[in-house]
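Encoded backbone
================
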Amino acid sequence: MQGSFSNPEPRGVFAVDLDETLIQTDLLYERLLLLCRLSPLRLFQIPWFLLQGKLRFKKWIFSKVEIDFSILPYRAEVLEKVRLARQRGETTLLLSASLQEDVDQVMRHLKLFDQGVGSRHENFKGAAKTKYLESHYLNNNVTYVGDSGSDFPVWKHGHKIIAVNPHPRLMKKIQSLQKPVEFICDSEKVFGLILKQLRVHQWVKNILVFIPVFSAHRFNDILPWIASLRGFFAFSFLASAVYVFNDLCDLKTDRVQEAKKHRPLASGRLPLKLGMALVPVCLVLGGVVSLGLPSQMLMILGGYLIMNVIYSFWVKEWLALDVIFLAIFYALRVLVGGAASMTPVSEWLLSFSIFFFTGLAMVKRFSEIKKQSNLSVAGRSGRRAYEQQDLMTVLVMGITTSIVSILVLALYLSTGEVQKLYRTPGVLWLVTPLLLYWFNRLWLLGARGEISEDPVLFAIKDKVTWGVVFVVLCLIIKAI
């Protein structure tokens, strides 16, 4: 008859799983994403090592990248239960299928466990954990904290069950054991976390897709507007894929920044494997929406995707070049709208877009440096190449670029094209002081530290910005 490590004696053992239980992430996926960012070419070696077994793969990837265990998202509820178990005099164990070296580093960091066992010569999971507990703690009441079906053999022979975020089928299976059980379930719904991670609220930036068809005054032709709408959703899904990809690459830096550490992936509230799945899903959705649209638009979308990969891996850390890329990303939205609706995009509009959005990108970098300076943190912010001493230089560059964009607009209003498109073009000159006021106010608020790191999101919530937009639209309608 098989033994059970459950006994009425008061001596207790409190055993905890590591991945997705004690920590709100998986160390294997953490290392895989780090490898992707630091040595992307090594990804081609993965199939070879996987063929040699999962344990061999874990050891190989362990030798290539290091994890900072001090910034991992630890689950507060489980940590508190471990502390209470120690106060009751129970033996605390950390049992994990992760490598023994990982388990040792977590123990050294937390200083809460009496012993830790990880994978050495075999993948220490499920039945292997049960065998270990039977051989070492057969006469003890074992409480085991786990999260997946692979932990069921341990729960089956234990005294008390604590399950973290079990799916409904596993929950019923656990309850059928008729043992003391406790469930730790995250309060946030996965669907809501997915929407946050996709940053659907930032799709408002993609309204720029409609600028070409609007500026060409194609108000009576419904087809270009429908094509622009499809371009809007295609770009939105593609942009969301990029957001997720960037967050997966920047887990380490996001976790040490106050403004970013609460993001779904960085905080561990959204599983990394789900985040990795979102990227291809969004790309497929973007491709489906794009079916039948002009090939030129598809080429622009492809260029946007390639540039974002380059930006995420390299350009993000290049001084000054990063803001140029950010400005181009916005300008590409305008080009996508022109290509989708088959509406020519003028050089004036492109020139204005480049300078205007470079100015906004400078506001973003200025806000990051300003915030770092206010926190008295020396050195660079995250993976950025900017330092505190660059604050005034970025301020001057940003203000200059912003004013140049308004100058481009003023020069455009003096051309013959405006005379042909508008019946009363003189009204449009009132737009220039409005934009000058808006940019001046934006930079003043940035200098005061009152703007978040993303000025576009600030503008969306800013009542003054909406007032300026309303007046500008009224002036354009009046001019038409």
The first helix runs from residue 27 to 38. The two ends are 89 Å apart (CA to CA). Residues 68 and 86 are 25 Å apart (CA to CA). Residues 190-479 form a domain with the Farnesyl Diphosphate Synthase fold (CATH 1.10.600).
